[in-house]
């Protein structure tokens, strides 16, 4: 039976830098480019933007590193509307999203999903239909890469809802931050007679325990201050299901975030250094098993 290789990438804001570090190490060890080695790409939010970079533009690891540079992160998350005494009391999103679209336009320009060299799936969520959305290169070739990237990363609280055609879409992490099961099903549709091997890369798990008794008194602001969005992005159940369903043909790369800031938008040099160190630790712990899976 022939084999197809699927790359699944989680969302996680600035922590996607760890994903890029791991992919850089992987590309150094493979005899071919990542965009050539993998046959199918799926991603959520920041992971989806990396997936599009690979599928649409055949980006190498150096180009991915540039895409997720501190320079671009500063552009994506500029002009915070919360940098005042009102903070969480603001009625608008933390960032206006203008800088994010400019960065996406700089890298993807007029490309559409249908321009992908390999199948790619971008997760999102339609807030009017109250339904998950999979924007794919084969079913939605007309959707621009900029619109797809903007929609999949429109994290509530952080960025405004994105309008794509007649739909209003938000971050796919609401329903599938760890999109491996969606990717497996989609890949099986395209390649029913192939064995599917999957490399899935997370963005770290916040394992800091919350105070149960104190949480009984938390309202909206209390939950937001105690990582409500992080709880929504928890992906351990998806991992357990994928492990049981796919077995040895599936490998998950992830860890606790340790000293990395749980906030998805901490782009400070000190936090990015910790994120990069997390990515290096992943290669140390999962590099050999990844190469065995892919070879």
The count of β-strands is 8
Helix tally? 14
Oligomer: single chain
The coarse silhouette is globular
- Structural class, by secondary structure, is alpha/beta
> What is the makeup of the main sheet?
8 strands, mixed
Tell me what portion of residues adopts beta-strand conformation.
5-15%
Mind telling me the C-alpha Rg?
18 Å
Mean of pLDDT: 90
Fold and architecture overview:
By secondary structure, the chain is of the alpha/beta class. Helices cover 44% and strands 15% of the residues. The protein has 14 helices and eight strands. The chain has helices at 16-29, 34-37, 46-57, 61-67, 70-76, 98-108, 145-152, 173-176, 180-190, 212-215, 220-225, 228-232, 236-246, 269-294, and strands at residues 3-9, 40-44, 120-126, 131-136, 162-164, 167-171, 195-201, 250-253. Strands 1, 2, 3, 4, 5, 6, 7 and 8 form an eight-stranded mixed beta sheet that branches. Helix 1 (16-29) packs antiparallel against helix 4 (61-67). The radius of gyration is 18 Å and the shape is globular. The mean pLDDT is 90.
């Amino acid at each position: 039976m022939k084999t197809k290789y699927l790359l699944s990438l989680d969302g996680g804001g600035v922590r996607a830098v760890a994903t890029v570090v791991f992919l850089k190490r992987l590309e150094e060890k493979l005899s071919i480019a990542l965009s050539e080695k993998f046959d199918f790409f799926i991603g959520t939010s920041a992971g989806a933007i990396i997936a599009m970079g690979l599928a649409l533009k055949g980006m190498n690891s150096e180009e991915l590193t540039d895409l997720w540079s501190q320079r671009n992160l500063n552009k994506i998350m500029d002009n915070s509307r919360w940098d005042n005494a009102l903070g969480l009391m603001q009625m608008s999103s933390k960032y206006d999203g203008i800088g994010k679209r400019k960065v996406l336009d700089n890298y993807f320009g007029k490309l559409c999903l249908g321009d992908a060299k390999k199948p790619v799936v971008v997760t999102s969520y339609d807030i009017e239909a109250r339904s998950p959305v999979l924007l794919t290169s084969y079913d939605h070739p007309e959707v621009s890469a900029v619109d797809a990237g903007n929609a999949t990363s429109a994290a509530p609280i952080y960025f405004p809802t994105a309008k794509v055609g007649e739909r209003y879409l938000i971050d796919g992490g609401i329903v599938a931050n760890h999109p491996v099961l969606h990717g497996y099903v989609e890949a099986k549709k395209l390649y029913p007679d192939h064995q599917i091997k999957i490399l899935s890369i997370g963005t770290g798990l916040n394992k800091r325990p919350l105070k149960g008794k104190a949480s009984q008194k938390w309202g909206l602001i209390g939950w937001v201050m105690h990582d409500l969005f992080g709880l929504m992005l928890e992906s351990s159940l998806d991992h357990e299901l994928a492990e049981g369903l796919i077995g040895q043909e599936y490998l998950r790369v992830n860890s606790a975030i340790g000293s990395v800031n749980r906030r998805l938008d901490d782009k400070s040099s000190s936090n990015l250094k910790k994120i990069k160190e997390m990515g290096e630790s992943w290669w140390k712990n999962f590099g050999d098993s990844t190469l065995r899976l892919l070879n």
